[in-house]
Amino acid sequence: MADAPSDAPKSAAADTPPELLALRHQIDALDRDLLELLNRRAGLALAVGELKKKEGSVVFRPEREAQVIDGLKAVNPGPLKKDSVAPIWREIMSACRALETPTRVAYLGPAGTFSEEAALGFFGASIVRVPCASIDEVFHTTSSGAADFGVVPVENSTEGVVARSLDIFLTTPLFIIGETSLFVRHNLLRKENALEGIEVVCAHPQALAQCHGWLSHHLPNVERRPVSSNAEGARLAALDPRLAGIASARAGSEYGLHLVAPAIQDDTHNRTRFAIVTDPHRHPAPKASGHDCTSLIVSVTNRPGALHDMLVPLKRHGVSMTRFESRPARSGQWEYYFYVDLQGHPDEPHVQSAMMELREVCAFFKVLGTYPIDVK
Ligand SMILES: O=C(O)C(=O)C[C@]1(C(=O)O)C=C[C@@H](O)C=C1
């Protein structure tokens, strides 16, 4: 006779093959060891925090965090992938940092923007989020002291520079202490799971431009409405079924929208680079980490050979230029500001000499910051 069905739920273990159970047992034991080790690490971070408080020095040390990650990647024996090291240790250091002091980070909000994702990617999740309504507000919130750091987009691999950020860099008292970049995957989001019936697509102008080809092909007669951020577009789409937004999948789940069409950006390798800014009166420039970048804005007077003269000191001292961007100076004279990234740190003698000579030939010379190159 068959057994009478029992109402009692079967224990998960009863169904699990013994081999799997044994492996999970080992994982559980290691997780407890890891937790113990992480707590010991957190205790040391707390002691570092006390020391820093006594000395009156700042908690966040981007160069130290970059060195910790670089060092671990170099000795990682696997099978954990090298690329997994940075995100794991960023979170560990974020949690340790939060024990020392809260880190308030301003970025272009609302919740669900790529800027928020960049902030979390750089600082880890243990931060106080300060979403702002515009790039201008991110700078303002950071310089007023309402946030310790600001995260602003500076360039996109499809669309080029983020002009507003570069223009503000010209006059802001803030400086750059870090950089991070993100793969930007745009998705069409909507309340209804269909393309039919969409009357307006709302997104940040950069996102509309990055999806121009897809929109022209699939929604040729639909209005494209620029809004302050992609997450704002998603928020609006959640309020009105005639609207669709273009934003991250995270923004879609944040606002309860269907992902009607995934990855609609024209360039599959679409990346955005962000700068991390802070107030130099409250935070010192990062020390040399061994893999650094120095960002400058310079201009030269409009005369034959001026640009060539600018490059000579870099060549003479063997300093690589990894970025060269021009923006009109708005003088009406066809004059330009050049946004230049140099490889290295001003504490390195060859970089210092090149910068001193460069300053001599420039009509305008501003150091935007020096910081560890993004470690992934
Ligand atoms: O080494 C320090 O200065 C610390 O405060 C510790 C620690 C870490 O967790 O490793 C935390 C925050 C800093 O940004 C750098 C590193």
Automatic annotation (TrEMBL):
Pathway: Amino-acid biosynthesis; L-phenylalanine biosynthesis; phenylpyruvate from prephenate: step 1/1; Metabolic intermediate biosynthesis; prephenate biosynthesis; prephenate from chorismate: step 1/1. Residues 14-104 form the Chorismate mutase domain. Its EC number is 4.2.1.51, 5.4.99.5. Keywords: Amino-acid biosynthesis, Aromatic amino acid biosynthesis, Cytoplasm, Isomerase, Lyase, Multifunctional enzyme, Phenylalanine biosynthesis. CDD domains: ACT_CM-PDT, PBP2_PDT_1. It catalyses: chorismate = prephenate; prephenate + H(+) = 3-phenylpyruvate + CO2 + H2O. This is Bifunctional chorismate mutase/prephenate dehydratase. One of its GO terms (molecular function) is prephenate dehydratase activity. Residues 295-372 form the ACT domain. The keyword Cytoplasm applies. It comes from Ideonella margarita. It is found in: Cytoplasm. Catalyzes the Claisen rearrangement of chorismate to prephenate and the decarboxylation/dehydration of prephenate to phenylpyruvate. It comes from the Bacteria. Residues 104-279 form the Prephenate dehydratase domain. The gene is pheA. PROSITE patterns: ACT, CHORISMATE_MUT_2, PREPHENATE_DEHYDR_2, PREPHENATE_DEHYDR_3. PANTHER family: PREPHENATE DEHYDRATASE P PROTEIN, PREPHENATE DEHYDRATASE-RELATED. Its main location: cytoplasm.
